[in-house]
């Protein structure tokens, strides 16, 4: 029994990483209808920032806000140029632009941070284990689960319960009407992009303690995040969370029972979900005018 | 705004002049007998093996610099091409190197898939080729070729010696194998199991995980629950780092002995990132920064790049030493391929990997295999310390 309890905790910690990146991508992709394939680069950048932050001897807990701020700042710059000009354009143009940028970022990061695999120097406080019914479980993973939970709640509250959130959601449905209310929709989009980039960076900072950081991680993460968003259902906060949990649990338990077929099984189940619910687990209710 | 001073006409004139200059110079240099020998390094400077590729280039460049940029009395130029770790890209680059650049010697190659992809092209062109890292057994067996040398190990040489050591020193039964589910993982683990069984050992569960597994925790928990007497594991690069760290995170590092082929504990590629999580690991490898043969190189490399060498840099350096020995035997006349071959097959070359002889059946190196244990080095950081040497291990070769 305790064995499955620990495996459940493992699944939760992996799900939280998927959720953090998925939420960032979902914010931009489904709420703002902008295909942002540079999202994996924010994740990797966040990881490198945290590693170098702690490596330089700065207070470790500040590493996570720092990753959020720096990745968010990159998001802000990108929003000014060139994203801003591509919001009204077709998805194909957005894919071409952001994919190209992600390749450039990958090269820049290899040049700046080197091609070696590096890991987060985990702070002393988080390095131990707790014993869950006799089996060891790393404290760092509990930290990831807790942080992710708090962030998801905060984000849900911001998007679903505040005026800012309402404005972002309104922008997507009818930008023209929002403009006539006197709101600057351009600025609202900027906030969305910065928030998403920051979340990507934060996910990377937390994840680097589990996954390390190395060239190529950006692509792997982007793929997982896209999977989470699409299976969850475009435009749905709850769907993204649900699908991150599903993917996390399926991946973990297929590793437990059938490690050899882990990828096959987890991707197969996600594909089956899409066949049954083509628009994702949770479909956003749109008012038809 | 001074850029107007360079017009297109100037550029054209300059291009024409330099082309003319090159055209005039070429016959003169050829007549002088000092045309450079062109050595091409095919490696991965982007993609999953980028870190290995950088080290490889650094190792070979160090050797060329130490040789005074010349071999057998002729200057040496190095051409480096990036195969991105992809077979199709490598094929394109090798074709270009052979037909357009007219290189004299090819070397490098990290991925076994790349090595197998370019094998027919270099074999058909009879181009002198030295495979520095790719370990696929097939290249020493059915895919061996008269002009392809392998100054490196085969998977069998590491899996086999790993099994000998495990059976003698660790446990005779109750172990688990764990490998990345792709060609290299299957070979290392398969060769380990064969030899271990031949010795009389009994292997327990065999686990395979997809290459690029993000989270090993579920499997690490399985290990904790199974409590095996040892784990024979193979993962490359970032996978190795994650596996070792997660073993430590779950407090299994001191409970379960991990043994594997050297890549799992590579001094340059894995240990700096894995840190103390690597301590206590045992590996069989043709390379060790702690081996006497590699001392001079390790010191020079540490000075040049401020890091201790691992397989990629040492292999590239040793490949360079082999190429240099061959070129010196023909006094720089690289066209005498058969004489060059004869030199390499007749006597050992002393390299940073150890004394290296070549098997005349398949041009495969016969190498000393070190058993390294990861202990704290002089600087307190994890260091591959030689605890035993299996001398002159020879792949079974074409008949296997």
From TrEMBL, chain A:
It comes from the Bacteria. One of its GO terms (biological process) is amino acid transport. One of its GO terms (molecular function) is transmembrane transporter activity. It is a multi-pass membrane protein. The chain crosses the membrane at residues 12-30, 37-54, 60-78, 90-113, 139-159, 188-211, 223-249, 261-283. Keywords: Amino-acid transport, Cell membrane, Membrane, Transmembrane, Transmembrane helix, Transport. It is found in: Cell membrane. One of its GO terms (cellular component) is plasma membrane. CDD domains: TM_PBP1_LivH_like. InterPro entries: ABC_transp_permease, BCAA_transport_permease. Belongs to the binding-protein-dependent transport system permease family. LivHM subfamily. This is Branched-chain amino acid ABC transporter permease. The lineage of its organism: Bacteria, Pseudomonadati, Pseudomonadota, Betaproteobacteria, Burkholderiales.
TrEMBL record, chain B:
It comes from the Bacteria. CDD domains: PBP1_RPA0668_benzoate-like (cd20014). Keywords: Signal. Gene3D superfamilies: 3.40.50.2300. Residues 36-377 form the Leucine-binding protein domain. Belongs to the leucine-binding protein family. PANTHER family: LEUCINE-SPECIFIC-BINDING PROTEIN, PERIPLASMIC BINDING PROTEIN OF ABC TRANSPORTER FOR NATURAL AMINO ACIDS. This is ABC transporter substrate-binding protein. It comes from Pigmentiphaga aceris.
């Amino acid at each position: 029994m305790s064995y499955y309890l620990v495996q459940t905790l493992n699944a939760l910690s992996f799900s939280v990483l998927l959720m953090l990146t998925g939420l960032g991508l979902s914010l931009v992709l489904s709420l703002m209808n902008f295909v942002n394939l540079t999202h994996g680069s924010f994740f990797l950048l966040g990881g490198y920032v945290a590693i170098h932050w702690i490596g330089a001897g700065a207070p470790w807990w500040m590493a996570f806000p720092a990753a959020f701020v720096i990745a968010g700042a990159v998001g802000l710059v990108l929003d000014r140029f060139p994203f801003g000009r591509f919001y009204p354009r077709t998805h194909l143009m957005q894919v071409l632009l952001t994919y190209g940028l992600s390749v450039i970022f990958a090269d820049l990061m290899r040049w700046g941070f080197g091609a070696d695999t590096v890991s987060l120097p985990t702070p002393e406080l988080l390095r131990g284990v707790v014993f869950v019914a006799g089996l060891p479980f790393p404290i760092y993973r509990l930290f990831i689960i807790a942080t992710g939970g708090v962030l998801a709640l905060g984000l849900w509250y911001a998007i679903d319960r505040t005026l800012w959130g309402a404005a972002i959601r309104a922008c997507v449905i009818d930008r023209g009407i929002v403009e006539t209310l006197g709101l600057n929709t351009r600025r609202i989009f900027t906030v969305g992009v910065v928030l998403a980039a920051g979340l990507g960076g934060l996910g990377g900072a937390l994840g680097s303690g589990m996954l390390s950081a190395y060239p190529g991680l950006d692509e792997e993460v982007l793929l997982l995040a896209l999977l989470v968003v699409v299976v969850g259902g475009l435009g749905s906060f709850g769907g993204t969370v649900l699908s991150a949990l599903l993917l996390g649990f399926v991946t973990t338990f297929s590793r437990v029972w059938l490690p050899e077929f882990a990828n096959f099984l987890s991707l197969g189940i996600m594909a089956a979900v899409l066949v049954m619910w083509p628009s994702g687990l949770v479909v956003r209710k749109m008012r038809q005018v | 705004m001074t850029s107007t001073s360079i017009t297109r006409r100037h550029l054209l004139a300059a291009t024409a002049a330099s082309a003319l200059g090159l055209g005039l110079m070429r016959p003169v240099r050829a007549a002088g007998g000092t045309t450079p020998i062109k050595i091409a390094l095919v490696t991965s400077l982007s993609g999953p093996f980028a870190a290995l590729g950088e080290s490889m280039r650094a190792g070979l460049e160090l050797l060329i610099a130490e040789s005074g940029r010349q071999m057998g009395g002729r200057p040496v130029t190095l051409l480096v091409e990036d195969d991105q770790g992809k077979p199709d890209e490598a094929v394109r680059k090798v074709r270009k190197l052979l037909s357009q650049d007219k290189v004299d010697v090819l070397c490098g190659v990290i991925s076994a898939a790349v090595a197998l992809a370019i094998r027919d092209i270099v074999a058909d062109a009879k181009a002198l080729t030295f495979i520095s890292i790719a370990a696929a057994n097939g290249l020493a067996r059915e895919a061996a070729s008269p002009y392809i040398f392998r100054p490196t190990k085969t998977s069998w040489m590491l899996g086999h010696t790993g099994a000998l050591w495990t059976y003698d020193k660790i446990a005779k039964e109750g172990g688990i194998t764990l490998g990345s589910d792709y060609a290299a993982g299957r070979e290392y683990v398969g060769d380990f199991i064969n030899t271990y069984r031949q010795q009389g050992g009994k292997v327990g569960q065999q686990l395979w995980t997809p290459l690029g597994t993000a989270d090993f925790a579920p499997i690490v928990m399985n290990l904790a629950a199974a409590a095996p007497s040892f784990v024979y594991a193979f993962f490359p690069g970032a996978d190795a780092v994650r596996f070792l760290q997660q073993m430590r995170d779950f407090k299994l590092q001191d409970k379960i002995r991990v043994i594997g082929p050297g890549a799992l504990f590579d001094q340059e590629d894995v240990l700096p990132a894995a840190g103390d999580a690597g301590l206590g690991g045992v590996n069989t490898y043709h390379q060790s920064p702690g081996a006497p043969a590699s001392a001079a190189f390790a010191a020079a490399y540490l000075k040049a790049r401020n890091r201790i060498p691992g397989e990629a840099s040492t292999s590239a350096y040793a490949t360079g030493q082999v190429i240099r020995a061959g070129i010196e035997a023909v006094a720089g006349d690289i066209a005498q391929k058969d004489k060059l071959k004869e030199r390499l097959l007749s006597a050992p070359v002393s390299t940073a990997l150890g004394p290296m002889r070549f098997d005349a059946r398949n041009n495969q190196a016969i190498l000393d295999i070190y058993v390294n244990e990861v202990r704290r080095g002089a600087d307190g950081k994890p260091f591959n310390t030689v605890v035993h040497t299996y001398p002159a291990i020879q792949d079974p070769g074409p008949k296997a």
